[in-house]
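Q: Hi! First time asking for a complex rather than a single chain. Here are the components, and I think there are three in total. Is that enough to go on?
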Amino acid sequence: MISRDLVIVGGGPAGLAAALAAYENGVKDILLLERDQYLGGILNQCIHPGFGLQYFKAELTGPQYAERFIQKINHIKEIEVSLKSLVVHLTKEKALTYIKPGAMQTLTAKALIMGTGCRERTREMIQIPGTRPAGIFPAGLAQKLINIEGLLPGREVVIIGSGDIGLIMARRFTLEGAQVKAVIEIQKESRGLIRNVVQCLDDFNLPLYLRHKILKIHGKDRVEKVTVAEVDDKLQEIPGTRFELACDTVLISVGLIPENELIEMAGVAMDEKTNSPESSELSTTSIPGLWVCGNAYKIYDVVDGVTRDSAQAGKLAAEYLRNLP
Amino acid sequence: MKLFDVIIIGGGVTGAAMARELSRYKLKIALLEKEVELAFGISKSNSGIIHPGTQNPSLSLKGRLCAQGNQLMRGLAQELGVDFKEVGELIVIFQEEEKARLRSIAQEAEALGVPGLQMVDRPWLRQHEPNLSPDIVAALYAPTAGIISPYRLVYDLAENAMKNGVEIYTAHKVTGIIRPADYFEIQSTGGIFRSRYLINAAGLWGDEIANLVGIQDIVIKPRKGEEYLLDKKLENLTNHLVFPLPTPTSKGIIVIKTSDGNPMIGPTAQDGEDKEDLATTDQGLNQVLASAQKLVPAINRDDIIAYFAGLRAVAGDDFIIRHENQCPGLINVVGIQSPGLTCAPAIALMVIEILRQHGLSLQKKRRFYKNRKPFTHLFALPLGKANKVIQKNAAYGDIVCRCEMISAQEIREAIKRGATTLDGIKFRTRAQAGRCHGGFCTTRIMKIMAEELNLPCSEITKRGPGSEIIKASRENEANDIT
Amino acid sequence: MIKKLTCIACPQGCPLIAEIGQGRVSKVSGNKCPKGEEYAKQEIENPQRVLTSTILTQGLALKMAPVRTNKPIPKNKILEAMSEIKKLRLNRPVKVDEVIIENFMELGVDLITTRTVD
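A: Yes, that's all I need. Here is the structure of the assembled complex.
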């Protein structure tokens, strides 16, 4: 079987930083597998500013931040980038199989770094009752439709959850001419960064309903309205506070979950609550020579932290390879 | 105007099974479906259980057709290449005293010829079904129970029926029926059809169709069932379908194995009036969860990854399958609720017999295509085989839905075989049915659909007109070249 | 007049109280560092924002090219700037940080790309 020194799964900010750091620390054979047709991961659809304040001391957008890494990687011949390559199988011996158009490859990695990112929690995970019409989107999907495809998926929008993606999308929908009817947050405070509450909601006078909960989604073919109520400290509905909001779109922005099904398949010890690896030190897992970094390791607030920690994982992998007999 | 021999109203599993069975004969057949795709009514919410014949009295149509359908389904699934698995079922009891009820269920089933029934005790259960509640004292084991994908069965039946000459018209809602001579004239939203015989398999709307020709004694009430799907990681949560003792109105909350791997818990049974009320409820969720946990305590609220509600078409205690003498040539096939999926192939044979008795001449075609061109599902192949498929056709290596490992080629194939909506693609391929619920793949699928169907993305729908995904496009605003 | 606002100069998010007279900030309290005062003055007297968006492309590898203003623009110009951006269609390959429109809307800022689009 083909063997590679270092394989990195994921070409988003985590994988890019890990690849660069590993190279800079002496690894000369790196394979970077990215399932999309471009490097950059989720940064490509995060066209808003606010990236790089810590790492580059400049306020960049997501694509600008990504491109600073991509341009470097593209000039390093020791880092082989394989796009449209989806890893479908992984063993505890770090043998992995990936599929790309026209080919399926199996190889072993002496060292392996997983930068597989995260997925969004869905409407189903918080079990919102009601119907299942068109018009219910994870916030990130709406972001992709608008920013990458130029398609507006709604005119009257209610956003469930005040995480950063939800706030950013409230502004984005508003700028694209849609009406954001409400952001509904069950907690006492917004879950997003203050700057996002200020610049995404307050700037456009968009209403944020704290301590409110969505009770039901209505609509046969397309979303027609939602039922909302205020909740008490135990998050239970306060009687008499129900109201309805007419809308054609419900965005779900209720948090992110690390994507770690591959390492789980390989038998890495997992923390079931967070869907991340049990880990004694940054990025380490129960399998020697296998690291997890970026949002797959834990959910980060800002990308700069992903870069910093993932670079550390790249460095650890380089050390590990140096010490192999 | 063309005169059909038989027109079937309703493109659920009953209609599709009849269409396919009738397509063996030299007949001009059409099937009219009001939705934009088949299986979008009752069939899409089916649990996918192929019942052995343990749930209904031996003298009922349901019981008889179920036992027969269970046997017929095996051959049918093989001919069509639909994935059928015989997993067996357990009807469990919590009290020793309830054994008498199990025995009477077994007696009824034996009268129907259900094979292999066995009373199993606690040690057997511990060995064969370790996740079952320790409070369960015994069970009736029926090994011939199975699972199938309800919607794929419908699509495959229909595809094979079309191959054998049946004409299928979706988005054709029947609005009026007259009988000007010895044929029916059927008005639909897609035009007028004429047929010598007419089969009403219109599901929830079977009473309204019957009303159009003056039959007043059929009343169909919707009975809602909420179902909750669990993460695929729990595929081996149980090895069998696990049933409680049935109640007068339902089989109770079941722990279901599905052909897609995800266990499912449900369904509720809630009588209502609204034939379009597909909303799930908090009460439904709590009831399903509590009942399922009673059977399998390891089930957790967080394991739920999807849910939906379906409506059963209830017309009294049993199916209504009969020729209407007051309207010669009309056969009502209504009130088909559980175990309707299992019964479908047997219902088809029964209806053909009724047609024969009422004068339809049935001559077998010289050439009947009993098989369907297989559909390659990458996820169902071992890796080595998948590799060969990818090398042969690169597009199988172009993964669109990563949660379920569905390639661009499978999406295209689904569209070629009739999918016109996002739900149609999901039902045929599983793309968007995984953990992320389409968060990652929806845009790509829309683009493939736009290309294959030659539509702008803004016209792509979830399940037909009114369910468009997109409200506006920059294309229509941007004009200044820079 | 008293206005409460949250400082977003850094993630600490100090709650600021600004005293305002004739449209000018006379006093700021609640801030833990000088940036807070600066922020309150700017935010009340002349609030500015970086605008990011996308423009439609024609004949390029990506359907949408992400863009931004290279410097902040007055907050009250944002919606007008958006309607200008929505009219645009890009038909030539661009590098990241390439200027698309110089002195955009006479605001003294450039509209630049934020991704290389071939």
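A: The CA atoms of residues 267 and 306 of chain A lie 24 Å apart. Let me know if you'd like any chain examined more closely.
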